[in-house]
Design goal:
Elements: E1 14-19, H1 33-50, E2 62-72, E3 81-89, E4 95-104, E5 109-122, E6 127-129, H2 133-139
Antiparallel strand pairs: 1-3, 2-5, 3-4, 4-5, 5-6
């Protein structure tokens, strides 16, 4: 099977640092793949908090992960300080991709590249929702659609 190749942007709009804990280490004595997913989740939460959002309240709706891809480039060990560079790309009507570049601070070596696809979700109505205008305004104004058109200016944030 061919390896997955993630094309990441050159510029990320947010970064945060996390330290690999002993509980993140697997039987191979390095950072476990399941723990990397948890660290990516933490980085995404910190990104959202930076813009005064939570996973359950982004303009009145939440978000839900639809897919995830992680490619490991090098090992990471207990006490390593990792920088998680985070950005958002590939918007569609209902969501976007969070992209990550994980770098070990000690040697400036890439540990992993990752992507989580998300959709916005109205948990009360149990249905997907359009990307909230406030998310564009705070996180990606350069990617915002034209809200003056009839289809984009609807007051309803839920899916049609």
């Amino acid at each position: 099977m061919a390896r997955v190749n993630l094309d990441l942007p050159d510029v990320f709009t947010f970064s945060t640092n996390l330290t690999v804990r002993v509980s993140d280490i697997n039987y191979g004595n390095h950072l476990g793949n399941d723990r990397m997913i948890s660290l990516l989740h933490e980085a995404r939460l910190r990104y959202l908090h930076n813009y005064d959002f939570s996973e359950f309240n982004i303009g009145g709706v939440g978000l839900m992960v639809t897919d995830i891809v992680v490619t490991f480039v090098s090992e990471s060990f207990v006490a390593d300080k990792l920088t998680f560079k985070v950005g958002i790309t590939d918007f569609n009507k209902y969501g976007c991709d969070f992209v990550y570049l994980v770098v070990n601070e000690r040697d400036d070596k890439v540990v992993a590249k990752a992507k989580t696809g998300i959709v916005f979700f109205d948990f009360d109505e149990r249905r997907i929702s359009r990307v909230p205008r406030i998310f564009y305004e705070r996180c990606a104004p350069e990617s915002a659609p034209d809200f003056t058109s009839d289809s984009a200016s609807s007051n309803s944030s839920t899916a049609d």
